[in-house]
Design goal:
- There is one protein chain.
- With 139 residues, this protein is α/β, with parallel strands linked by helices.
- The protein has a domain at 49-135: Nucleotidyltransferase, domain 5 (2-Layer Sandwich).
- The chain is 32% helix and 19% strand.
- Helix 2 (82-93) packs across helix 3.
């Protein structure tokens, strides 16, 4: 007598995708949220605080001058000596008097250093000068 074996039913292996999809969505949310908190990189300057501030929309024709707490002056992350600041700004402005010059001075810097940079920018031909601040407490 011949005995025939029954063919075993093969089970299809399926990977559970629910937890994988959850992880992908969590990563997507994480990167979307952290992308909003990216700030300008550059010189480490702690801006002074002001209660009444207004936001300035991004202008492509702006020049940012940083003054760090030691009084060093930077343009585009490059240290500029004070004697070289006037010719450098004159080249950057070059008959475009509508270019905006933003001065980001550290809150610990002596006021005279920031005012000196403003005077040099004005002498270079800048008609629009802004001092950057950050929003302070409402106390």
């Amino acid at each position: 007598m011949l005995v025939h074996r029954k063919a075993k039913t093969r089970y299809q292996i399926q990977m559970p995708l629910t937890s994988l999809i959850d992880i992908v969505f969590m990563l997507l949310i994480y990167f979307m949220l952290t992308a909003n908190f990216i700030v300008d990189e550059g010189i480490d300057v702690k801006l002074p605080q002001a209660k009444q501030t207004s936001t300035q929309e991004e202008i492509s024709e702006e020049i940012t001058v940083y003054v760090d707490k030691d009084g060093g002056t930077y343009i585009n992350d490059k240290l500029i000596q004070e004697s070289e600041l006037l010719p450098t700004l004159q080249k950057m402005i070059a008959n475009q008097t509508d270019r905006l010059v933003i001065i980001k001075a550290d809150r610990a810097v002596v006021l005279n250093s920031a005012v000196r940079v403003m005077d040099i920018a004005k002498a270079a031909g800048a008609s629009k000068l802004y001092i950057a601040t950050e929003k302070g407490d409402e106390n």
